[in-house]
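Milestone M4 deliverable, item 7.
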Amino acid sequence: MQKLSILFILLITSLAAQAQENAPEMADKFRADGKIYVVVLVLATIFAGIIAYLIRLDRKISKLEKEN
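Output delivered:
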């Protein structure tokens, strides 16, 4: 779990550094309209769902391994 947290933090910081270099015109348009927050929220929700699924799957697999 700790490795996953460290990986997540490193991923977020690297993406933030990349995002500051060159913003595409579409991102500027979304930012101007205020829709960039909706995009970020949707992406964060999808990412959180994938992480939750993987954690749940890992727990189920660990439980099955202990039974055998």
